[in-house]
UniProtKB/TrEMBL annotation:
<dbReference type="GO" id="GO:0019450">
    <property type="term" value="P:L-cysteine catabolic process to pyruvate"/>
</dbReference>
<comment type="similarity">
    <text>Belongs to the UPF0597 family.</text>
</comment>
<feature type="domain" description="Serine dehydratase-like alpha subunit">
    <location>
        <begin position="86"/>
        <end position="422"/>
    </location>
</feature>
<dbReference type="Pfam" id="PF03313">
    <property type="entry name" value="SDH_alpha"/>
</dbReference>
<dbReference type="GO" id="GO:0080146">
    <property type="term" value="F:L-cysteine desulfhydrase activity"/>
</dbReference>
<dbReference type="InterPro" id="IPR021144">
    <property type="entry name" value="UPF0597"/>
</dbReference>
<dbReference type="InterPro" id="IPR005130">
    <property type="entry name" value="Ser_deHydtase-like_asu"/>
</dbReference>
<protein>
    <recommendedName>
        <fullName>UPF0597 protein KDK92_06605</fullName>
    </recommendedName>
</protein>
Amino acid sequence: MNIGNLIIDTLKEEVVPAMGCTEPVAVALACAKVKELIDYDTINNIEVLVGPNIYKNGLAVGIPNTNEVGLYISAALGITGGKSEKDLRVLEGLTEEDVQLANELLDSGKLSLDIKDTKEKIYIEANIDTNKGSAKVVIQGRHNKFVFIEKQGEVILDAKEENGQSSNSNNVLYNMKISDIIKEIEKIPYEDISFMLDGLEMNEKVSECGLSERKGMGVGYSFKENMDKGILSNDIANTAMMMTAAASDARMSGICLSVMSSNGSGNNGLTAILPIAAYRKKFNVDDERLAKALAISHIMNSYTKYYIGRLSALCACGVAAGTGAGVAIAWLMGANDNQIDGVIKNMIANTSGMICDGAKVGCALKLATSASSAVQSALLAMNNCIVPARNGIVAETAEDTIKNLKTLSVEGMSNADSCILKIMKQMQTKAHA
């Protein structure tokens, strides 16, 4: 097997554009697909069921082309204006009429959305019943992966994965030494990996939007104001923090711009890319090294999430995407294998306690922390300042440290998601009381 080709294929599969937070977007995608299966005149009812992690991550995030938040409106928009061929850009190009019709659909009571009792991290089921028949679709494993399609009682596709098997379960990359993967990326010809630069341009544009005017919480905008005043220094860590937070501010508020996602998450894409963009602002980096650094960051994000899960009780921006960015920055600085290992150990020692309590405007704070920690971890490792083995969950190697992180995520925090979701739902209920 050619490892270089496998890396390129993995990047093309996992690094894709998305408009809006990927959880509500995936719900819209499922609804768009199911409505396209039936040539109906009137809808009797639509039932949408989502896994707990999808519900948690879609509850409080802004939806592009609307002034609203959440999964209900995104499901309705999938029905009224979504086109499944746009994939994770399914909410792109919606009209005011589409939004009005979506709200009318919600007001009619014909659309219901509830939590599915499943251990699947990514699970979305959409059922439609109309005057011309019914249909059902299921997305599972990845935010845009249809594993079941049924039309008029006839099963067209049935590729459901059992026992939470990841679509990456047979990818040999995730059993390789990280240093060996990086060496393989170094060998890839520039023309085969230059597409990585598209994500840099895309995510920088979103960041610039969050810096040009206050959006969401205005975290990145506030950092910029303090840097302009001289209260914060204009160094690489603060620049990374500012740029990444500003992009999250814009995205979580529902801006109508696509971001380049990473391993199914737009915020992961922002965190994996923008600290590297901040490094480029301070140091000259040619396009080939920049493209390979971005590839390292995305693959490192995917590598870590292979173990902790695509959706987790842990904040993947902190423990996975931030780790990828830190490794890529250290690589750009000429790190050796031990220093690359050290970045990973430093990041996991620092950010492993960061929980994921859903996608929301407050994510900008976590992305700021992740981006700053990525730079700090790289700089410390370059000075051979590395958390030693057997300090907490840090092991002898980076690979074993990531496996310890998996144990923490899968076993240690098995009840954390349901607890976080319980708290969020209680607050939602009180807010509408």
